[in-house]
Structures are given as C-alpha cells and as structure tokens.
Specification:
It contains 2 helices and 5 strands, in the order αββαβββ. It is an alpha+beta fold and about 110 residues long. Strands 3-4-5 form a 3-stranded antiparallel beta sheet. It is globular, with a radius of gyration of 16 Å. It starts with 10 loop residues before the first helix and ends with a strand. The mean pLDDT is about 90.
C-alpha cells in the first residue's frame, strides 16, 4: 500500500509548526528538514566570524546569529543561517532578518 505524499508547508505554517521536540529545522521546498546538532568547533568558528564582522560594521548595519532567512521569491523556503548582516531595521514580530547582505553558514 502506498502512502499519500506529505502536504507541503508554507513559511507561515512552518513558523507556527511544532514537532514537540528540541530539533531545529529549516524549510526546504515546503518540507521541514532537520538540522544537525551544533558541534563545539562549529560554535567557535561562528563566534570568531561574528567577532571579526562586528568590529568592522558601521551603523545602520548589524549582525544576527541563528537568524531566519526567508527568500522573497519563495513561500516554501526558510533557512536558519549561522551569521547574517543586514542594514535594514528589524521590526517587532518579524520572523526573518530583512534584506541580508551577508549570509554565513558554517559547514561542519
């Protein structure tokens, strides 16, 4: 017997979704994809990158970490980047960093 295809999610549905665990997810093409746990070496690299970037930024630009990134042309994809730089203000209630100009994802 075949199983029906899973229903794809929108970004809004994904952000409201809770699987009841501590697992972190990204939304890729409408499907939640579990993210690997963060390794200690990963944390050190992210901290070092954040420190170096912060010392070079000028207002109004700022850093975000573990930041949500939504593609403006897709309603089925939502990433969580390790480090993000944006110069567009964050408004209350925003789920993603607006208009990122730098996105850093550490592969470990």
């Amino acid at each position: 017997m075949t199983e029906p295809a899973p229903r794809l999610m929108t970004v809004s549905e994904f952000l409201a979704w809770d699987d009841g665990t501590d697992t972190r997810y990204e939304l890729i093409d409408g499907r939640p994809v579990a993210m690997a746990p963060v390794a200690p070496a990963h944390s050190v690299i992210v901290a070092n990158a954040t420190h170096e970037l912060r010392s070079r930024l000028q207002r109004p630009c700022y850093l975000g970490s573990e930041a949500g990134i939504a593609r403006p042309d897709r309603d089925d994809t939502f990433y969580e980047a390790d480090v993000v730089v944006s110069c567009t203000p964050v408004e209350p209630g925003m789920a993603a960093i607006p208009d990122p100009v730098v996105v850093i994802e550490v592969l470990s």
